[in-house]
Amino acid sequence: MACFYVDVKSVNLFLFMSVFFQIFLVALSFAYFAKALSGSYMKSTITQLERRFDIPSYLIGVIDGSFEIGNLLVIAFVSYFGAKLHRPKIIAMGCVLMSIGTFIIALPHFLIGRYEYETSVRWVENSTLSPAPCRAGLPAELTQDGKRPQEQSTGDCFESNLSMWIYVLLGNVLRGIGETPVQPLGISYIDDFTTEENAALYIGCVQTISVVGPVFGYLLGSLCAKIYVDIGFVKMETITITPDDSRWVGAWWLGYLVAGVITLLSAIPFWFLPRSLPVPGPHFQRKDNDEQKGFIKDHPHLKKKYTADEHTGFIEMAKDFIPTLRTLLAHPVYLIYLCVTVIQLNSLIGMVTYKPKYIEQHFRQSASKANFLMGVINIPAVALGMFSGGLLMKRFKLNIMGAAKFAFSTSLIGYVLSMFFFAMSCENAKVAGVTLSYDKIDEISYDKHSLFTACNRDCVCSSNEWDPVCGENGITYLSPCLAGCSTSSITGKQKEVFSNCSCIGVGGNLTANTGQCLEKDDCDSMFPYFLALSVITSFIISLGGTPGYMLLIRCIKPELKSLALGFHTLATRTLAGIPAPIYFGAIIDTTCLRWGQKKCGGIGACRIYNTTAYRIAYLGLTLSLRTVSFIICIPGFILLGRQLKKEEQDAIHALSNGGTELEALRKEECVILNSDQPLHTPENSTDRHTRL
């Protein structure tokens, strides 16, 4: 008869090591928080970087995708070799690299000169008089490219803006390299040293923290967007634009310094954590005979998760890499899952990257407010959905098929709800010479309009200037000169007011203020519905996040888990993280109505978009990609069902073989007992037990 005993030493060791596991769980959560904060802050500064370095959206997409390029360089090797090495210390080194990369991103601010926003009156220098936007003269005084003579480059055009964005790109690459080991090694470490029942909950908690990080990232972006880029370096009373102006650039660099310090702090705990932990199990061990353990297959107290071989050499690991990768890629369910997640992440990454910009351009909100709303309203819904998904999976004990169906259902419901975004539209901004003709100011048209008309024919105006003013008639003009304003004055808080504007009003004597018109009554009524629907869809879609991730872990063999997670990350970064921001940005660029001009020539950042075309391109591309992913899910469910059925049949077959072997041993024992044995010597008894 089996007996039970308490191994006090093992219990104390287990309790001691469980403390290390809890520390690791907290440290990993903080590392997830730090990397998510810096990543979301990068996305919150998209429009700031566009304006500061005067670059188009597709180039911003290249900068954003450079993070994934850093992952691509090392992810496969880190995931494979890292699983066999000291995982906590590798994660610590990654956090340090992330911190250094974040500091490098902020470096251009301290290397380039002060930011000079476009203004039509800056060319009048050393004048104590109020400059006259509309100069008497002839348009012929302009050069062939539409610039005033004073605007021509003077030879010192090697402006830092043209090249300094390279530092942002390189810093983001280094940040991507540092982030590589955090996810695959951290998740596999949790799954190796905890029970399967608790793994889903722990991973759900970590993923939830990673979604909380963007809340603070976007809030930090909102705060920094309100602060002028050169705060502390210029006299703020000389700045005549506000955060609502399309030329405003916030203190984008300040948030990167904060994010870099937080990321550096997250590396500290990992240096003190052990390489491995004991596999959790009951504190009371059953004292079974070695002979019983020898023939009973899959003994419950002998079952252990896969753990790395601590004595495996580097060369042996390298030789085993290609065969192991070939085995992984031959798994049909894993390949289908990979294709589906790559396509859906293309949709998700492109949508999230340009969502703040969509809110700015379509609903005419400031960058600060767009980031604030993303952080306070949208991201918490995602965090709640991720956590709720983990709880639901634990509560209903969903198996692999149940998790797959749950993730598919939530994604499909969110897809249907997202179609209602098409109905939430705003009228395009009224800009004379761009969306309106000077002759028909009540009819929006996207035909090519002339900027020069009878009301400003006596002014020497540049067609390339972007110094928008809002007339009393509610129409935006590209510059006070093109509005025909002859005089200007400075009011309180250095706000410029232009008067005697010949193109504004019937009498031509109305005034204009600096900045675009903010008439947005139709958008203000539609915007709350957009936010509500955005929160609902984000919550529903994120419900399937944790079950979908557990499907990835459970559909492959335990020894392939780290490599599967790493290769999944590699594929999604390469095929989704890198290209999605680039082609989303390129498509958004096609909807631009007015491009800025760089000092040294060439196209700069877009000043105004066709919001109708923007909405159709942005939402249409997002939903089209998700449609393709749903189609691919159909063969995925079929293959998953076949795999589960085969595994069930193999388990029944193994159980049947084990029962046959046990029955044969029992029959042999009966034969021995019934045979004529002269004496039951100790040797005979030992031999019988051994055979049993």
UniProtKB/TrEMBL annotation:
Among the GO biological process terms of this entry, one is: sodium-independent organic anion transport
Query: Which GO CC terms are listed, alphabetically?
Result: basolateral plasma membrane
Pfam families noted in UniProt: Kazal_2, OATP
Give TM segment ranges: 14-34, 55-78, 90-112, 199-220, 253-273, 334-352, 372-392, 404-424, 526-552, 564-588, 616-640
Q: How does it sit in the membrane?
A: Multi-pass membrane protein
**NCBIfam families, alphabetically?**
oat
User: What is the protein name for this chain?
Assistant: Solute carrier organic anion transporter family member
Question: What organism, scientifically named, is this protein from?
Answer: Oryzias sinensis
Q: What is the lineage of its organism?
A: Eukaryota, Metazoa, Chordata, Craniata, Vertebrata
